[in-house]
Design a protein that fits this description.
The structure is a single chain. This protein is an alpha/beta fold. The strands form 3 sheets. A 5-stranded parallel beta sheet has the order 4-7-8-1-9, with helices on both faces. It has a two-stranded antiparallel sheet with strand order 2-3. A two-stranded antiparallel sheet has the order 5-6. Strand 2 and strand 3 form a beta hairpin. The protein is globular.
Amino acid sequence: LHNVDLGIRPGEVHALVGENGAGKSTLMKIISGVLDKDKGEILFEGKPVERMDVNRAQDLGISIIHQEFNLLPYRTIAQNIFLGREPVKNKILRTIDDDEMNRRSKELLGFLGMEIDPRTRVGNLGIAQQQMVEVTKAIAVDSKVMIMDEPTATLTKKEIDMLFETIRKLKSQGVSIIYISHRLEEIKEIADRVS
């Protein structure tokens, strides 16, 4: 990456396009704290962020949905959504509150229009449903900026329509979406701006 200058506005879908190897995914990994930047600066809500790592990005409300899923197939949907942030019943014993985790997961899945039992193991889901679990994970951390790296690569037309409806809902709530895609028809349909 060289002399990249990218600004994202609240509540917009900002498409990022370019040929393979142009650095789109690398830039997103820097923004989300997966990779360190060599130089330059990252501003979030007008303030400089000196050291960006995955935890810092998550604390700020930046989430990324990678092309390759980060899901545990032998765990349930709810366990994947709340991995590392499980609600607890007993703060001393740190007993996980499965009922609360399932209730909140069902609520989040419902927001996305998914009528599925959050106790279902992720390995039993189809690719499109797994993609929506990834989106649900990002929503669950109260994302302000959600990065979607080629989110429709494995989806059918119906599933893409469902994802776009979700994107519109998130946008209406002020969430900014950085949308990486090679599919120009999709970009025309969903993006407010393109870089």
